[in-house]
Design brief:
Layout (H helix, E strand, L loop, with lengths): L4 E6 L20 H5 L5 E4 L1 H4 L4 H10 L5 E5 L2 H7 L6 H10 L9 E7 L8 H10 L4 H8 L22 E4 L8 H10 L2 E2 L1 E3 L14 E6 L12 H15 L22 E6 L7 H13 L10
Parallel strand pairs: 1-2, 1-9, 2-3, 3-4, 4-5, 5-6, 7-8, 8-9
């Protein structure tokens, strides 16, 4: 038994992609429609920089195939500025969930919470953040009702069927290489992002949830540099292990304590080497490696 694997890209609206990945003269309004039929998932990163409108979330849902899944990047206002230090984080979180993200419906996948390199690990503070995260669509909709006037088109109706929500954390400060951090993530069922980059950020592969979340940021500089066939083949073998509920024999770990045993895990992998239009093509190449492997990934959209 293997978990479903989704290979995708971080964002889709890049001027440099036009005429290279996107066909010449393709209308900008149709870029998501095109990209979502070439990859299996896309990270929405505009939500990291500003509150989006409910109409935008619904438009993104409607532009993509039936089984397509988005991940959603949490606001930097929370992770980089407020840093969940006090009660001001609650209305800000409410604004995010009231902005319309639940309007993605069945296409709503994991939430990504990316912390800056200056954000150090303090167990008590970090557990407060994990406790704030809504565990399902009903609790997210209830949380959203605490929004303030900064939300212009409030949308906080939960889907008819209550669905569990998934969360992943990307770290960039070495103090997170702490067994207590891994224990907290496992207790709350939050994934540690496997983050590959040239930036010198901490790298670890500890499995802490029922899914694995990967971000591949490039091989030459941050956000650029294509992955070689050898590198993609190595990632494919790691993904195969995670999808089967195990991990690579040479996994780089923070703790020797093993995660809860599972028959399979879902895997979400996003290429973020977008500056030289390498992300979408690397995503397609990795998918080809996986399709030649001993298990099948989700069907081409």
């Amino acid at each position: 038994m293997t978990g479903r694997v989704r290979i995708g890209i971080s964002g889709w609206r890049y001027a440099g992609w036009r005429g290279v990945f996107y066909p010449p003269k393709l209308a900008q309004a149709r870029e998501l429609e095109f990209a979502s039929r070439r990859v299996q998932s896309i990270e929405i990163n505009g939500s990291h920089y500003s509150l989006q409108r409910a109409s935008s979330w619904r438009a993104w849902r409607d532009a993509t195939p039936d089984e397509f899944v988005f991940s959603v990047k949490g606001p930097r206002y929370l992770t980089h500025m407020l840093r969940f230090r006090d009660e001001t984080a609650i209305p800000a979180m409410a604004n995010f969930f009231a902005s319309g993200v639940l309007g993605l419906g069945e296409k709503l996948g994991p939430f990504l919470w990316q912390f800056p390199p200056s954000f150090a690990f303090h167990a008590k503070d970090f557990e407060r953040f994990l406790t704030l995260l809504p565990i399902d669509t009903a609790s997210a909709a209830a949380f959203a009702q605490q929004h303030d006037t900064r939300v212009k088109e409030p949308w906080f109706d939960a889907p008819r069927e209550k669905r569990a929500l998934r969360h992943a954390v990307e770290i960039r400060h070495p103090s997170f290489l702490d067994e207590t951090f891994v224990s907290l993530l496992r207790r709350h069922g939050v994934a540690l992002v496997v983050s590959d980059s040239t930036a010198g950020w901490p790298y670890a592969e500890d499995v802490t949830a029922d899914f694995v979340y990967m971000r591949l940021h490039g091989t030459e500089t941050l956000y650029s540099g294509a992955y070689t066939d050898e590198a993609l083949n190595a990632w494919a073998h790691r993904i195969m292990a995670w999808a089967k509920g195990t991990q690579a024999a040479d996994a780089r770990l923070i703790t020797a304590r093993k995660p809860r045993s599972r028959a399979s895990r879902e895997v979400f992998c996003y290429f973020d080497n977008d500056q030289k239009v390498q992300a979408p093509f690397d995503a397609e190449r990795l998918r080809e490696f996986l399709e030649r492997g001993p298990f099948s990934v989700s069907s081409r959209q």
